[in-house]
Amino acid sequence: MASPRHFLQLKDLSREELDYLFERTRSIKARFKAYQRYWPLQDRTLVMIFEKASTRTRLSFEAGMHQLGGSAIYLNTRDSQLGRGEPVEDAAQVISRMSDIVMIRTFEQEIIERFARHSRVPVVNGLTNEYHPCQILADIFTFIEHRGPIRGRTVAWIGDSNNVCNTWLQAAEIFDFNVHVSTPPGYEVEAERAGLYGTDHFEQFADPMDAARGVDLVTTDVWTSMGFEAENEERLRDFADWQVDTEMMRAARPDAIFMHCLPAHRGEEVAADVIDGAQSVVWDEAENRLHTQKALMEFLLLGRVND
Ligand code: CP
Ligand code: NVA
C-alpha cells in the first residue's frame, strides 16, 4: 500500500502544490457562494480528534466535509479511549481503517507524527504546540485575495513566537516573503523548533514599533496558547507592551491589513479599535479556513482534479 500524503507542517506541501491549492480554493469558494452542489468526497469519512478546544477548526472541517458530500465524526480525549492511555499508534491503526482522512488537534508535534506513521490515510494537523498549518493556508489565501501575491512583502508578527508564528515563518521560506518578529525577551523564535531551513526570511526586533514600520500586514495571536495556561499571569505581565494598537498600525504601510487567527482577547494582544477597525480582515480570514481546507481535503484524497 502506498503511504498517504499527510499535512503535518506547512512545508509538507511544495510551493507549487500550495499554489494549486489556492487555485482550487478560488473555484470551490465560488461554487459555494453560488449554492452549487459539489460532492467529490461522497461516501468519504473524516475523523476529527480534538485534544484541545476549538470553534473554527471543528466547524470548518465538519461543515467543509459535509459540503463536499462526505461525513465527519468528532472524537475528543474525554469521551474516547485516547484519554485513558490507549497508545497513539494503536488508535491510528484502528481509526485509519474506518475512515478516509483524519484531522488531529493535540499537544506535541511528536504525537501527530507518531499517529501519521501508523495511519493508512492522510493525517492533517489541526494545531499542535508547534504548528498550525491550516490557519496559515487561510491567512496566505486571505492576503492574496486582499493584496495580491505575497512574494517580496513584509509581515509583522507581534507577540508570542507560538505555533501560528512558527507556521508564518515556514510560509515566508516557501513563498519568499519577510517576517519582522517582535516578542518580549525570553520568548524569541527558535528556528529549529519552527522547522526552518535558515534565518534569511525573518528578523527579530526588540521594539514592536520597529517591527511594524512599513509592513504590509500586521498579525498577532493570544499571549497564552492552549496548553500553557499555567503561565498566564506571568505572560500578562511580560507581554503588556506587545499590544497591536492604532499607533502600531499607523507605523505600518497605509494600506496594511490586520489579521488574527482568533479567538482574540481585546485589550490584551490587540486593541478593540484595530480588530474591529477598517484594516482588519479577521472575518474573511476565519471564513477562508472553510474554503482552503476543502481544497486541502480534496487534494489529499483525490490528488489534482480538473473541474
Ligand atoms: N483559529 C483557530 O484555529 O480557531 P479555533 O481554536 O476556534 O479552532
Ligand atoms: N496559539 C493559539 C492558537 C489558537 C487557534 C493556541 O495554540 O492556543
Describe the structure concisely for a colleague.
The protein has 307 residues and is of the alpha/beta class. 39% of the residues lie in helices and 13% in strands. The strands form two sheets. Strands 7-6-5-8-9 form a five-stranded parallel β-sheet.
Keywords:
about 300 residues, alpha/beta, Rossmann fold, 2 domains, 4-stranded parallel β-sheet, 11 helices, about 40% helix, binds phosphoric acid mono(formamide)ester, binds norvaline
Description:
This protein has two domains: 10-132 and 288-301, Rossmann fold (3-Layer(aba) Sandwich), CATH 3.40.50.1370; 133-285, Rossmann fold (3-Layer(aba) Sandwich). The protein is globular. It contains eleven helices and nine strands. Helices cover 39% and strands 13% of the residues. Strands 7-6-5-8-9 form a five-stranded parallel sheet. Strands 2-1-3-4 form a four-stranded parallel sheet, sandwiched between helices. The mean pLDDT is 97. It has 307 residues and is an alpha/beta fold. The protein starts with 14 loop residues before the first helix and ends in a 5-residue tail after the last helix.
